[in-house]
Amino acid sequence: MIRFLIKGLLRDRQRSLIPMLVVALGTMLTVVLHAWITGIMGEGIEMNARFEYGHVSVMTKGFADKHNQTPNEYAITGTDTILKTLQQQFPAITWVQRIRFGVLIDVPDSLGETRAQGPAAGMGIDFFTPGSEEPQRLNLLSAIRQGRLPEKPGEILLSDEFCSKIKLKPGNKITCIATTMMGGMSFVNYTLAGTVSFGSPALDRGFMIADIRDAQYLLDMEDAASAILGFFTASGYDTEYAKEVKKRFETLYPPAGGDLFYPVMLTMNDQPLMNVLLTMSSMMSAIIISVFVFAMALVLWNAGLLGGLRRYGEVGIRLAMGEEKKHIYTSMLAESFFIGLAGSFAGTLMGLFLAWILQTKGIDMTSSMKGMTLLMSTNFHARITPPAYYIGFIPGIFSTLLGTALSGIGIYRRQTANLFKEFES
Fold this sequence. Notes:
With about 425 residues, the chain is an alpha+beta fold. It has 2 domains: about 190 residues, no CATH class; about 180 residues, no CATH class. It has 15 helices and 14 strands. The strands form 3 sheets. A 6-stranded mixed beta barrel has the order 3-4-9-6-8-7. Helix 2 runs antiparallel to helix 14, helix 11 runs parallel beside helix 14 and helix 13 packs antiparallel against helix 14.
């Protein structure tokens, strides 16, 4: 029977082609939207990972307990050795050192006296190691407003708004005053290489980016860092993979109880703010996708319902020829199943292809996001995840079946004695 129904669908295109195209279109839209929403929601997660948290981070227990205060007195030491261990044990993850600190910017006049001062938050990243991806990871090149990126030790970047207020220009000399890791005071001269726009009022008021070695020199943190961040190279943040990495790390560095200087690993879920953001992102994504899948299901349900009603005359002829009502009903359901299956399969393939293009190329929204180039990439990408391979089959098959099932109930209400009267009219 199944073989007979499939042959009938292939030969009678009027009965199968249009419903199949409708199902394929609906499934394709479902898959593309799922990948797009997943990618957009993931951009916010990736922004926070690139700028501050990493997908996983290694720091001391003392620093982790007071993370929001950036307590560099609990900085992780022996970072070169720890980095080598991490790179050997987790080669699929990119590991980088970061330093976060507070600094007072002192601007001298022509006589060397203080002309202006202002507080700023600071970050040390790796500018000069060959192959370093830190400038690209933070989109620094596109965030430059004046000047250029640092090209040699002793050069720094400052927020453009901060420089405008204290009348600083690229090439000017400044003095940074900071508290060292050991609690002393440090005074170091730097050259302003360029200014950047962050797109965040809090950072634009005063933020400094220096090479990690310059930051280590300023804060007396040789072979030390605030944290070592790990970035998953294969894809975006994956909660299960992050937990697995943390579990393996704890076999290398078992928890040491109350030792505040012992290294610990935190996933993004372990960071209170990021855990809230991840939960909200997951919920919002699920709600948006569910609403669209439901709307798509209604469309396909109506398509199945109308398809069943259009076959009212055909059903009457089959009843008049003596075919059982149950057999007609089950055959219509079987036909709908195969139409839904074929349409869903074709739509999923098309949707995955379009989602792959959006994942690879992305959509450039630079014109509508001026000033946000550092904190968030202006090129948005879709992200194909395992649910994208099957989510289109939910409305594609079940909604089509439901529409046919509802429209087919009328078969049992039709009386054979009235069929000839229906044909006459």
